[in-house]
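Hey forum,

I'm writing up a methods section and want to include a predicted complex as supplementary material. The small molecule is magnesium ion. I've pasted the protein sequence and the SMILES. Can someone with a working setup run it? I'll credit the forum in the acknowledgements.
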Amino acid sequence: MKTEVFRTASAEETRELAARLAAEAPDGTVMLLSGDLGAGKTCFAQGLARACGVAKSVTSPTFTLVNEYAGRVRRFAHMDLYRMAGGEAEAHDIGIDDYLEGFPGLVAIEWPAQAASLMPAGAWRIGLAAPEDGGASARIVTVARS
Ligand SMILES: Nc1ncnc2c1ncn2[C@@H]1O[C@H](COP(=O)(O)OP(=O)(O)OP(=O)(O)O)[C@@H](O)[C@H]1O
Ligand SMILES: [Mg+2]
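Reply by user p_vandermeer:
Happy to help. Structure tokens for the complex are below, copy them as they are.
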């Protein structure tokens, strides 16, 4: 496992960082986005979407737990498990398995701890946090991947 730590100074810098990382992620890569409410997980997902050539604006999936986009470059699946109350069983029901292995594109999952035991071992773990010393728009982004 290789862990890198980045510091971004704005939402746009977080999107750019995500887009750069997306370029290094082969199809089927699952990125687990962890961090408090408002840490910047959806912002990071927007950068991934941009790199995939998704023209639509990406917001958190609310009524559905998964949004799938056919980007010009490749497919992008964005999941937010925050509101999922039923744990792993519900995750299976919503068809999460189709995204966890062999998805022909990039997959990003917010709040992966809601179905922790299902997350693939090879997934990239992205942590977002506001640093104590920074202003409102600084974030520490930790990226762990094999
Ligand atoms: N460096 C930064 N990186 C990311 N977001 C930032 C940064 N600085 C400020 N922000 C702001 O923080 C907010 C992050 O919101 P976002 O929806 O991405 O969080 P989230 O982690 O997805 O929250 P939730 O758990 O509610 O889904 C946005 O309003 C964004 O503009
Ligand atoms: Mg979000």
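Some notes you might quote in the supplement: Residues 31 and 124 are 5 Å apart (CA to CA). The mean pLDDT is 95.
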